[in-house]
Protein: Methylmalonyl-CoA/ethylmalonyl-CoA epimerase
Amino acid sequence: MLLRIDHVGIACENLDEKIAYYEATFGVTVVSREVNEEQGVKEAMLHVADGEGGGSYIQLLEPLGPDTPVGKFLAKRGEGLHHIAYGVRDITAAMEQIGGSGVRLLDERPRHGAMGTSIAFLHPKDVGGVLTELVESPPRPS
Ligand code: MC0
Structure:
């Protein structure tokens, strides 16, 4: 069901500073920057590699305010790994299959993610303490 690691989401206090750090340290480059009001973040995607069905990225996340998922996470745990996201071919089918196994879905239906993706989160308490995201990428132009 899982095609690849789509991205790792990393919570940070200052997006511009963290982008500069990743570019200087790992030689990766930003391919997309967005504000996602629904998710309460401004974020940047830094390309790492290409894989089946899409790319693999580092996603840097700065909260839009303290009362957002990433804002609460930073207050509680500080900067660091926030979630892991797996690429899937069909997000609705994956949600049905995983939800049917008893894992709590944090989204009833897919939501808008970075770079035109459809995303859905799984409760970290049901995935061994790891906030987990499913990602369906838009079709690649042929
Ligand atoms: C919270 N918990 C985590 C966690 N966040 N565990 C692992 N990783 C995380 N990131 C744990 C807490 O420590 C707590 O455990 C329990 O989950 C409940 O957390 P809480 O702080 O009491 O509750 P909330 O209100 O902060 O909710 C946590 C929850 C929420 C994961 C349900 O953050 C959520 O719905 N997240 C999904 C959406 C999201 O994260 N969006 C931002 C990225 P204890 O043991 O203390 O009870 S958006 C994104 O990434 C998009 C743009 C994209 O990929 O394209």
Observations:
- The pocket of (S)-Methylmalonyl-Coenzyme A is lined by residues 9, 36, 39, 41, 43, 59, 61, 69-70, 72-73, 82-83, 85, 106, 113-114, 119, 121, 124-125, 129, 131, 133 (CB under 6 Å).
- Residues 2-136 form a domain with the 2,3-Dihydroxybiphenyl 1,2-Dioxygenase; domain 1 fold (CATH 3.10.180.10).
